[in-house]
Amino acid sequence: MAKPNRVVSALLDILLSIVRSGRTPERAGTPDRPHARIRRGSTSDAVADPGRIAGTATVRIEPGSIRDLRIEYSPDRDGAPDAGEIVWTWVPYEENDGRGKDRPVLVIGRQSADRVYAVRMTSKAHERDRDFLSIGSGSWDSQGRESWVDIEQLYSVHEKGLRREAAVLDRSRYGSVARALSGRYGWSAAG
């Protein structure tokens, strides 16, 4: 009886160290059914990343396939994502292989009752790149870095898939993004 108890105790120690460190064993995921990454929360409990769980995952969409998107400035700091707000969610990498990272996205319009369209943001400089538009710095970046909006990559973000509202982009900078998207894809941009 002593040996099985030591084995169980050793396995529990290993599992606890994994949960405490925030690491998980690699698991295969598919593009249409990503696996949830476990990260350490503010308590000792492990939680799954918002935006990565099947059903409420953030999903990349081909922008050219969307015909009737109305880009309208309508921020409302109510916990739900609205056009003109920058929110944080898990965003899949371009390879669409189940990997991704938590990042800010700019909400540009409503897709359905529980999903919005958003474009991803980055602090990596993209000067002279026609797919990126500089929007300057803001409170969404704790380091005050210049941010760029990727107008070529569109995402569908579920309301339950966002981690937090980060900021409201001012109307002028949002208008620049709306004009760039409207010019590229023919979407209507309301003033």
UniProtKB/TrEMBL annotation:
<dbReference type="GO" id="GO:0003677">
    <property type="term" value="F:DNA binding"/>
</dbReference>
<feature type="region of interest" description="Disordered">
    <location>
        <begin position="22"/>
        <end position="50"/>
    </location>
</feature>
<comment type="similarity">
    <text>Belongs to the PemK/MazF family.</text>
</comment>
<protein>
    <submittedName>
        <fullName>PemK-like protein</fullName>
    </submittedName>
</protein>
<dbReference type="InterPro" id="IPR003477">
    <property type="entry name" value="PemK-like"/>
</dbReference>
<keyword id="KW-1277">Toxin-antitoxin system</keyword>
<feature type="compositionally biased region" description="Basic and acidic residues">
    <location>
        <begin position="23"/>
        <end position="35"/>
    </location>
</feature>
<dbReference type="InterPro" id="IPR011067">
    <property type="entry name" value="Plasmid_toxin/cell-grow_inhib"/>
</dbReference>
<dbReference type="Pfam" id="PF02452">
    <property type="entry name" value="PemK_toxin"/>
</dbReference>
